[in-house]
């Protein structure tokens, strides 16, 4: 799928940094009380501490840790929040980003949220306190506290790996619903009607949930009901095996199972082999991520290829361009001089392999 770029409606961002005096005024306390709370919350009276905490959260106040020695300074650091440091998808994105930023003398500050919204808020607050040159977060669905912080940020904000909503500055990614729809169409065209989706912790992994919803909604229009398995143990080959067991228990005549990622799909393949279920003749299996093993496992796995490195490179290129032109007024700037938000859709690719093709279909494809 081709890359596209469009300019969406602009979210108005805060142009003035929220100060300690602003927090004090809202909490109806002195600035010295706010300062004490920031240094040692337990030293502040229990009567006023909740008011200060609430004011900080509502206003999106971030203390400037450089104020004492480097007033008005900005580091050459880029704050990056990813859901997981062990996930190969995000590793490829961060590596591409780091390589491009290195060429221009910038360094990454990296943190993992573990799909926890409160932890994401804490990481964003910490990174902003060091006055980063820019901030990169994963996804475009954040809790209110994080959104407040991002709106108040005085540095460019990039959201990656997902498209949707109204961006703060920049979004680079693809539609996860479209991924689900693409997999649904593929399985439906193979003749599968008894289909399951296997995911893990999808209340937190919202992008996996979107892929599930895209697949389920597309098939619902064809009159096909999808059996959804959502395990809370996290994505692993073990949970993939457990997911297949749960899917077969709920749908004994299962014909196809779409997995939230390749790791889960690998577990499904192992469990199918253990149970004597032929893949693909008895069960079609698909994954997501195009991880290196997907091409060499038995059978080779049908999967979705997200352009992970491209996302990292485009994030770096777009942010560097904004930083170079910061303060200039051009055709892409709004009335207040800030660049208009931009959405870059890098697309994705369906990679069809033997795990979702019947023997007859494989033979036909080889002849063609």
Automatic annotation (TrEMBL):
SUPFAM superfamilies noted in UniProt: lambda repressor-like DNA-binding domains (SSF47413), Periplasmic binding protein-like I (SSF53822)
Keywords recorded for this protein, A-Z: DNA-binding, Transcription, Transcription regulation
GO molecular function: DNA-binding transcription factor activity; transcription cis-regulatory region binding
Domain of life, per lineage: Bacteria
UniProt-listed Pfam families: LacI (PF00356), Peripla_BP_3 (PF13377)
Database matches in InterPro entries: HTH_LacI, LacI/GalR-like_sensor, Lambda_DNA-bd_dom_sf, Peripla_BP_I
Domain HTH lacI-type intervals: 18-72
SMART domains attached to this UniProt entry: HTH_LACI (SM00354)
Record PANTHER family: LACI-RELATED TRANSCRIPTIONAL REPRESSOR (PTHR30146), TRANSCRIPTIONAL REGULATOR (PTHR30146:SF33)
UniProt protein name: LacI family DNA-binding transcriptional regulator
Species: Paraburkholderia antibiotica
